[in-house]
Amino acid sequence: MPEFTIRPATPADEAALGRYGAALMRQHHALDPQRFILTERPEADYGRFLVSEIGHPDSVVLVAERADEIVGYLYAACEPMSWKELRAACGYVHDVFIDEGVRHQGVARRLMRAAIAWAKAKGLPRLVLSSAAGNASAQQLFESLGFRRTMIEMTCELNAPGSRT
Predict the structure, then answer these.
(1) The whole model's pTM is what?
(2) Is the pLDDT of residue 138 over 90?
(3) Which CATH number goes with the domain that contains 51?
């Protein structure tokens, strides 16, 4: 089996980034369509967004590559202190997505370790992320890397039929 390489994304990776970003968007939307958005053209929209973050001094977009094929990506950014979230400045992993065909082969772990190294190199005191409530395997990975549970997001649909509000 060929080895995986982790590298910074380039604008030439836009199609793959869009494909995987759209897959992540669809995955979340399928879990809770009221909470998570799904645009009309998620591949183009997400690919364009991720490429816009490349080269930004306070963000990183990494890809996992095997045999010249991108098989996953990670997007993280420096986030300022937030009064509304009651947290200090930190690094925030916004996205991690791995192609189904290579999951459970250490790709996500390698991307996450690269993000941890990036955050340390930036002098950030911590790295924060959110995980879909039903994604137990991702949560196990994050916990094995030293992440701990700190918040649980809850959503109340105000205009839903049968709402108690």
Answers:
(1) 0.93
(2) yes
(3) 3.40.630.30
